[in-house]
Amino acid sequence: MHKDNDRHMLVSDAIHKAVRQLINSGHEVTRKATISTLEKLRQNEKEPYLSDIYRDASLMVRNGKI
């Protein structure tokens, strides 16, 4: 259970990072823009585990789980 909570926190942090990037760059925060930013972060991530975190975050936003 502890690992699930850690993973949920990392997914939450990933979504927060994507939203902050959109805000800081002056873009509107929309579902589509957030997903796009998360996908870019995933593609640029070298660590496989963190890449999976960005994928999970993108799927959560895409499926309306948040």
Description:
- The protein is an all-alpha fold.
- The chain is built from three helices and no strands.
- It has helices at 2-24, 31-44, 48-62.
- The mean pLDDT is 94.
Which structural traits does this protein have?
3 helices, 79% helix, 0% strand
Write a concise synopsis of the structure shown.
With 66 residues, this protein is an all-alpha fold. It contains three helices and no strands.
Question: What class, by secondary structure content?
Answer: mainly alpha
Q: Counting H and I runs of at least 4 residues, what is the number of helices?
A: 3
Low-pLDDT stretches are none
Biggest pleated-sheet summary? none
Q: Please, what is the average pLDDT?
A: 94
**N-to-C series of helices and strands:** HHH
Portion in strands: under 5%
Query: How many beta-strand segments?
Result: 0
Overall form: globular
**Rg of Cα set:** 11 Å
